[in-house]
Write a structure and sequence with these properties.
This protein is of the alpha+beta class. The chain folds into two domains: 34 residues, no CATH class; 113 residues, Ribosomal protein S11/S14 (Nucleotidyltransferase, domain 5, 2-Layer Sandwich), CATH 3.30.420. The chain is 24% helix and 17% strand. The protein has five helices and five strands. The strands form two sheets. A three-stranded antiparallel β-sheet has the order 3-4-5, with helices on one face. Strand 3 and strand 4 form a beta hairpin. The longest helix is centred in the last third of the chain and has 18 residues. The two termini are 41 Å apart.
C-alpha cells in the first residue's frame, strides 16, 4: 500500500467558478506565474519591530548585574507625581517614549476634580491602559519601588492599569538560562 502511494502523482489545482453559467476554470498552483504579481519577492522588510517582542523572539537586553535601575525589560511603566499634575508613560528599553498620558491634558483635566489625587491617578491609568492596548502593548514592567515606600496614588495607578487590561509583568525572557520549562 505504501509503495502504491509513493508512486502516485498528485496534481494540485485551484478551481474558480465564474458567475456566468457556472463555468469552472482550473490552473496549476506550481506552474508558471500568470502575472508578475504572482512572483514572491526575496526581500522582506519587517514593518512591525514590536512583533518579535510579542512573540518572545527578540533579544531582551539584560544590562549588567550592578546596574541600577535594572534594564531587563522591553517596556517599562513610569509614574510621575508632581505638585500640579500626574503623568504615566511607557518607555522602551532603548529610552524612547512609546505612550504617555497626563492629568494636564485638556480632555482629561476637564473631567477631574483634582489633578493630583488618587482618583486622578486611577483616571490617568485607565487612559494610559487604553492607549497601550491600542498601540499593541499587552504587558509592561511595573515601576521600581522601594519596599514600603509606595504611595496610595501609585497603588491607585497600578490598580487602574490592571483594570484597563494591561499585565504588569512582562513575559519571561526566552534567552534566560534559569527560566522555568
Amino acid at each position: 500500500m505504501a509503495a502504491a502511494l509513493g508512486s502516485m502523482r498528485i496534481r494540485l489545482v485551484s478551481c474558480t467558478i465564474g458567475r456566468s453559467g457556472g463555468a469552472a476554470t482550473a490552473r496549476r498552483l506550481h506552474g508558471e506565474p500568470l502575472s508578475e504579481n504572482d512572483m514572491v519577492s526575496s526581500e522582506f522588510t519587517n514593518r512591525n519591530p514590536r512583533n518579535l517582542e510579542q512573540m518572545l523572539l527578540a533579544h531582551m537586553h539584560g544590562g549588567f548585574e550592578l546596574d541600577k535601575p535594572n534594564r531587563s525589560y522591553w517596556h517599562k511603566l513610569v509614574f510621575e507625581a508632581g505638585r500640579q499634575h500626574l503623568s504615566g508613560s511607557v518607555v522602551h528599553f532603548d529610552g524612547h517614549l512609546v505612550v504617555r498620558a497626563s492629568s494636564s491634558e485638556w480632555g482629561l483635566r476637564r473631567q477631574l476634580v483634582s489633578a493630583t489625587d488618587r482618583s486622578a491617578a486611577a483616571a490617568v491609568a485607565r487612559v494610559l491602559a487604553r492607549r497601550c492596548l491600542e498601540a499593541g502593548l499587552l504587558c509592561v514592567q511595573r515601576p521600581d519601588t522601594d519596599r514600603g515606600t509606595s504611595s496610595l496614588r501609585l497603588q491607585a495607578f497600578l490598580d487602574g492599569m490592571k483594570e484597563g487590561g494591561v499585565l504588569l509583568t512582562e513575559s519571561w525572557n526566552p534567552h534566560d538560562i534559569t527560566r522555568p520549562s
